[in-house]
Amino acid sequence: MRIKCVISYDGTNFSGMQIQPRARTVEGEINKALRKIHKGESVRIFSSGRTDAGVHAKGQTFHFDSNYHLTPAEWKRALNSLLPTDLHVNEAAHVHDSFHARFDAKEKEYRYYILNERERDVFQQNYIYQYPYELDIKKMQQAAGYFEGTHDFTTFSSAKSETVGSKVRTLYEVSCFRKGSRFEFILRGDGFLYNMVRIIVGTLLDVGRGKLAASDIGKLFNKHDRQSAGDTVPPQGLYLWKVTYNED
Amino acid sequence: MRIKCVISYDGTNFSGMQIQPRARTVEGEINKALRKIHKGESVRIFSSGRTDAGVHAKGQTFHFDSNYHLTPAEWKRALNSLLPTDLHVNEAAHVHDSFHARFDAKEKEYRYYILNERERDVFQQNYIYQYPYELDIKKMQQAAGYFEGTHDFTTFSSAKSETVGSKVRTLYEVSCFRKGSRFEFILRGDGFLYNMVRIIVGTLLDVGRGKLAASDIGKLFNKHDRQSAGDTVPPQGLYLWKVTYNED
After folding, report:
1. Partner of A37 at 20 to 30 A CA spacing, among A132, A180, A239, B154?
2. Nearby residues of A208 by Cβ (< 8 Å), 6 or more positions away
3. Is the pLDDT score of A160 beyond 90?
4. Is B86 in contact with A8 (Cβ distance < 8 A)?
5. What is residue B248's predicted lDDT score, i.e. its pLDDT?
6. Nearest Cα residue to A52 out of A231, A192, A236
7. pLDDT for B165 beyond 90
8. Domain segments of chain B: what residues?
9. What is the mean pLDDT of residues A62-87?
10. CATH number, domain A106-245, options 1.25.40.10, 3.40.630.10, 3.40.630.30, 3.30.70.660
């Protein structure tokens, strides 16, 4: 039986999604819970992809195989009773044996949040990027449009990216909104390179501050050089919001 | 020069307000920052009172003396540049030499937050008490009224309380509100005994679940016995909201 799970996690106290020796990871905690359910037997999980240390998820997805015959509701309950309080299964479902959480992902949505205030808010330090400089939302919205469509994202991904092959990706939506002192960025695409969301948002901040013009974005794409783009904004503002599959 | 500061802190990673050896405390962090400003000289601070591990503050207050002549804005800036990100000075002010943050406090306000949902929200685990059982807000509001006024709060404070002398306190307001799945409790009074807010809220939850009638509260006061009251609700839902002084 193949089971698909949709999970939320507060990334603050995780060294990211992917398992690592001697580090607290999301995958590590799920493996522990599954091993308990399977009486000591290890069960490997396959996620839609990695998230970095400090990055949050509202809709990360993984699958695993089990010969235990539990209903989706029972899987959800069993896992949640064993998982730590910063990691929660929102949904469990039986899926076809050919389903793969990574390879079948059709679209991913990330969101990034900025608090644009002079005073620091101690309660949001791990959940939003506190950026005190004035931002021109109109210019940022104009610049966001330049990222939509199919492009080679070499300029806007980490030079340390392990991606082999093409760095061409298609973004269906890159938008930003202001609600009071809160900025929301929504990015949807067929795939994202390492640090791609955080570098795009960092570049949009440069536009918002007037360091860069919206119309410069095209030239930056053509440089194929990470150094020409904006800073990588910090992980705590980033949320893996949703992973969409063909069956959905 | 006597300086009064109003601070916010995220209590999650503090072992409370009061300094303790080998523990990260709010007072300890402020002492470190003041020692740096005073070139290695220790400066003692006096707060309005303790808060427990995990308890938050939006308006904790302390004072200290210094022979450094900084303006209030300079004190605020100097401290905030040295304090960790989960502790923030909202306001600094010069006060009269006779001002005392603890003894001159006229009124304290605490707030307590409950998330009344079946599903756990991983992002709020340290900031709200997630309580999944159905609650009758009308009955809780009725019961809250019984706590207002002047009473001996022995039943509604920790038996471990170090308070010597009278356990009589006056509460000016005990109220609760529901906003969607969020419950807010507001308690204002001339002083609070150890765990008093958390035991009153725990008792109100018993009323909300029907374990106790609003009209039983009077009898509980008369018992002078901690065992007759409800559980002490967890610290993460509690905020020291405001301390009011005569001068304010």
Report:
1. A239
2. A135, A136, A137, A139, A140
3. no
4. no
5. 60
6. A236
7. no
8. 2-95, 106-245
9. 97
10. 3.30.70.660
Residues A60 and A73: their CA atoms lie apart, in Å, by: 18
pLDDT the model gives residue B129? 98
What gap in Å lies between CA A198 and CA B59, rounded to an integer? 34
Cβ distance A10 to B122 less than 8 Å, yes or no, reads yes
Rounded CA separation B248/B240 (Å): 17
Q: A122, B88: Cβ pair inside 8 Å?
A: yes
Residue A83, CB half-sphere, CA atoms under 13 Å: how many?
Answer: 26
**Does the beta carbon of B85 lie under 8 angstroms from any beta carbon of chain A?**
yes
Q: How confident is the model at residue A248 (pLDDT cuts 50, 70, 90)?
A: low
Residues of A in Cβ contact (< 8 Å) with B87: 122
Cα separation, A209 vs A133, in Å, equals 7
Q: Answer yes or no: same fold for B2-95 and B106-245.
A: yes
Q: Which CATH class is domain B2-95?
A: alpha beta
The tens digit of pLDDT for each residue in A97-150 reads 999 999 999 999 999 999 999 999 999 999 999 999 999 999 999 999 999 999
Q: Is B76 on the interface with A (CB under 8 A)?
A: no
| Alpha-carbon gap, residue B217 to B204, rounded angstroms | 9
Chosen from A123, A236, A238 to mutate, greatest number of chain B CBs within 10 A: A123
Q: What value does the mean pLDDT of chain A take?
A: 96
Nearest 5 degrees, angle CA A164-CA A165-CA A168? Answer: 120
Check CB contact under 8 Å for B10 and A86. no
CB distance from A9 to chain B under 8 Å? yes
What number is the ipTM of this complex?
Answer: 0.87
> pLDDT by residue (tens digit) across B66-122?
999 999 999 999 999 999 999 999 999 999 999 999 999 999 999 999 999 999 999
Residue identified by tokens 């909201």 is B241
Active site residue A52: yes
Q: Is A31 on the interface with B (CB under 8 A)?
A: no
Q: Which of A122, A125, A238 to mutate to test the interface with B (most CBs of B within 10 A)?
A: A122
Contacts of A128 (CB under 8 A, 6+ apart): A113, A114, A115, A121, A182, A236, A237
